[in-house]
Amino acid sequence: MEYRRLGSSGMYVSEITYGNWITHGSQVEQEAAIKCVRAALDNGITTFDTADVYAGTRAETVLGKALKGVRRESYELLTKVYWPTGPGKNDRGLSRKHIMESVHASLSRLKTDHIDLYQMHRFDFETPLEESLSAFDDLIRQGKVNYIGFSEWTAAQISDALKIQDSQGYTRFVSSQPQYSMLWRVIESEVVPLSTREGIGQIVWSPIAQGALTGKYLPGKKPPKGSRATDKKGGANMISRWMRDEVLTAVQNLKPIADGNGLTLAQLAVAWVLQNPNVSSAIIGATKPSQIKENIKASGVKLDSATMSAIDEVLGALPEKDPTKNVSPNPRA
Question: 3-209+274-302 in CATH: which number?
């Protein structure tokens, strides 16, 4: 495992982050989750990402139990706030009220006294940006949060936030958590250049496109039983966008490239996102330890320019690159 600085901060993260978005508390229960977390630690992963909303708050609880007894200073703990965690009108968003209540609930579920990276899980159009940023800065000053970031913001939203942080003397963002893969490249034209200039690192999710880049889905064939594409509770809706024969055929055509580099298709996909110098870490999920052991082999892999060009040639116009696709829900729209 290799490690990179998170943006311009002094904190290092493992190139591979273990995430439990649709696994812990949903697909994977406590005993299996503990095995996956232990496998991650044993293989050099020190960065763990979750969110209060995952599995209706159960994911944080499961992760907290799985990390019990592990020296707190030995790992980096990431979580997020924004999406609804209850039925009330204030159980969502980035108001000061919800942020303060959510961070205390997350700390309790995670069984810790601080969060290494606290992230705004989407942009909140209903709360003044200064209110949200002020609350996050207070959490840093209180010692409950070490660093702050955001997920799926546009370049304009990031710029607006940085201006407020600078004018008010607030602690700046150091991380962005966007979707990014060979097939989903919407951050490349605007978010990445801005982030590079402003010292913000990307911790990217879904580097294997919800599993579409593993090669297990074949054109003209039904998805394998038990796979994500068949699990309505485990991300079937998201992967459906890639379940087109033209995409699945292209993925199969990537196999000779992967073979030529001594990699599986999944390892090639994770290694591809890590070639971007603005990416600090790639998040992987797992329902069993063997998946972790496979994907971590992408850490430290260097793909030469010929390999990167060959990948682009195979995928052609299939990757989504439109920066306007990077959006947050706007109730007022």
Answer: 3.20.20.100
18-67 residue pLDDT tens: 998 765 555 557 788 889 999 999 999 999 999 999 988 999 999 999 99
- Give the separation between CA 230 and CA 207, rounded to whole angstroms: 20
For tokens 């503990």, name the residue: 34
Helices (H) and strands (E) in the chain, counts: 12, 10
Max Cα distance, the chain (Å): 56
* Number of C-beta neighbours around residue 71 at 10 A: 7
Active site residue 54: yes
Question: For 68-114, how does the pLDDT look when each residue is reduced to its tens digit (9 = 90+)?
Answer: 999 999 999 999 999 999 999 999 999 999 999 999 999 999 999 99
User: Hey, what long-range contacts does 187-190 have (CB within 8 A, 24 or more apart)?
Assistant: 187/323, 187/326, 188/276, 188/321, 189/321, 189/323, 190/154, 190/155, 190/323
CA distance 283 to 274: 11
**Contact (Cβ atoms closer than 8 angstroms) between residue 215 and residue 252:** yes
Question: Which entry of 3, 12, 18, 54 is annotated as an active-site residue?
Answer: 54
Interatomic CA distance for residues 318 and 182, integer angstroms: 9
Q: Copy the structure tokens of residue 2.
A: 């290799």
The torsion angle over the Cα atoms of residues 196, 197, 199 and 205, rounded to 10 degrees, is -30
d(CA 311, CA 319): 11
Residue 28's SS3 state is: strand
